[in-house]
């Protein structure tokens, strides 16, 4: 199992701080490594947010979403190529309630991905077919219905488009973020997704990975869904963390540059690592 972390906001903030640069001496003790990362460690999300999405009296998305990005913009193309490769996740906050991706737009996106050498992770709508509970706010119940995903995969395969991985749902784990799914139910449904991938992708060497849950880490929830799904279903365990807080925090820069503050989340990473080691094949 692999971890995928996005630190693009840090890069942007550090770039913004160059105007306050100071001369410093940096000493690196390289006797031992503390972590290893994949070649495509950096990843970004191409989200569903529309141009009118606003937060903190700002409307930053503009035409930067899945449906309205200018895929011919030279600076964007060159920036993505420079990472060689960059992982892009198509999905995000609205992926579990959006269903308006036309195949014409999917064709355009894939021409863009092929041209720039992107490693693609596609976020699957994990609430499709479920109903919201009448007794517990935010809980979605019932079995996941895979037909929409089946149709999408069949079209994708027929066009020869390369998908590196499918991630099942977005922020549905534990207490969720507006919506959640019971851990046992999630474990059952991800087996359905894995079987669908195995059925439709005939050759193991081209078979996309199955990732999840792409949400906040809660030990009991993670342990439960992995006990239900069993070994050989998940290829990568993903989780989200927002330890820097909201984007309007006036102390954001200090947090980014403070190693002791950043280290406060080490126990979360240790918890995820322990779960991986417990359930890996």
Automatic annotation (TrEMBL):
Keywords, ordered alphabetically: Signal
This protein's GO CC annotations: membrane; plant-type cell wall
MF annotations from Gene Ontology: beta-glucuronidase activity
Signal peptide: 1-21
A Pfam short name: Glyco_hydro_79n
Keyword Ion transport: no
Lineage: superkingdom: Eukaryota
Transmembrane stretches, start-end: none
Database matches in Gene3D superfamilies: Glycosidases
Keyword Ubl conjugation: no
Membership in a protein family: Belongs to the glycosyl hydrolase 79 family.
Protein name, as recorded: Glucuronidase 1
